[in-house]
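Thread: Eukaryotic translation initiation factor 3 subunit M, structure

OP (GT): Posting the sequence first so everyone is looking at the same thing. Length is 408 residues per the record. Can we get the structure tokens written out before standup tomorrow? I want them in the notebook alongside the other entries.
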Amino acid sequence: MANSTDSVSIFAEGTFEEQILELLSYIARNRTDEDRATFVAPFQNALKSGEGKKPIEEDETRRKLILSKLLVEIRGLGDGSDKEIKGFFNLVFAHIFSLYHSNSPEVRQYLGTILKTISTSPSERLSVKYRVLSNLFNSLPKTSPLRLSVYQTLLQIATSKDNLNVLELTKSDVQKWLSEWEITTEEKSAFLKSIVDAYVQAEEPAVAYEYSLLFVQSLSPSSEEAKNSALDVIATALRLPTIFDFDPLFKLDAVINVRDHALFSLLQVFLNGGLSEFKDWQAKHSQILEKYQIPTLELERKIRLLTLASLASSHIGQNLSYSKVAEGLQVDPSEVEKWVIDVVRAGLVWGKLSQTTQSLHISRATSRTFERDQWQALEKRLVAWKSGLASILDVVTAAKRQGGQVAT
């Protein structure tokens, strides 16, 4: 490997000929002097503007031919410093885009080959791979469909190296890109599916689930793929121990379209029902849980926590007795505190236990749905809060008046 003192200034100002020779010098740097001369000679001859030839700067056809032959010789990152590698590829990309329209078949072909070369390079210098591809991604117009290919390559490299977090990918970024890129609906769906698969492989199922919602939303609701994907995302939501909000699923047309499936009826239980409804469903459809690999014990835990959350929602600002909790959860009163601790850890309920009064004082609780009943309950609390503030204001005003009279 060359030392930094031997680095070649890839971004040096110069003519087309000088820059091409510089790129060739980088590619051939580890060859012997004789091999290097043999390698460069055909390019030098092609660059010459002899009798009957236009100057190379005025001959676009010849420049394209020379560049195409140079691109064939790029077979890896090369043996240079990180700065040299980035500079080399930046200059290569600059020549490609200066000679071809960004949506041309040639650009797609050349970039596809280079992206494959970078991703399959045996070099373990991941940071420079990411930087080269990130530079390319950011240099492309926001609407360019080429951005899809570049990011798919980034995703492929990161996934293959168990290094997905380095991309710092967010749902808002993905949604923004998909709204900008001029790509087909099918390509958008395929991109979202590749993200889902990447997070599944990275053993981050909760993140994969969030992208699964976007993926299902991107599909044609009536398609067979949408039906199968909708059932998979329902099963995933039920299976994951950290998913308690099922309302987003009911906003997906593909999910609504499988309403005749047993999994959909189970989803409705988890949105509005309780333990009794779950047991009734289980008695009729136990084979469905086996088919979709949904553990019964996990479902029982989740439905109990959701039942407790619903009880708490109807007792905000009040005490909820242990006996009422035990009855709703169908557990022994001695187990109530354990379930309360679990529901608090799950972020569904906030409150304070009292062993003296055998009750839970509810300060806040998450509603499983937010529909008419929840809006009415919120209205009542706001009215009570407003009334309380008015009473406080009256007391303060009266105290000020009384204080003024004493002062005089």
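GT: Both are above now. Quick notes for whoever picks this up: The first strand starts at residue 319 and ends at 321. Confidence is low (pLDDT under 50) at residues 1-11, 372-382.
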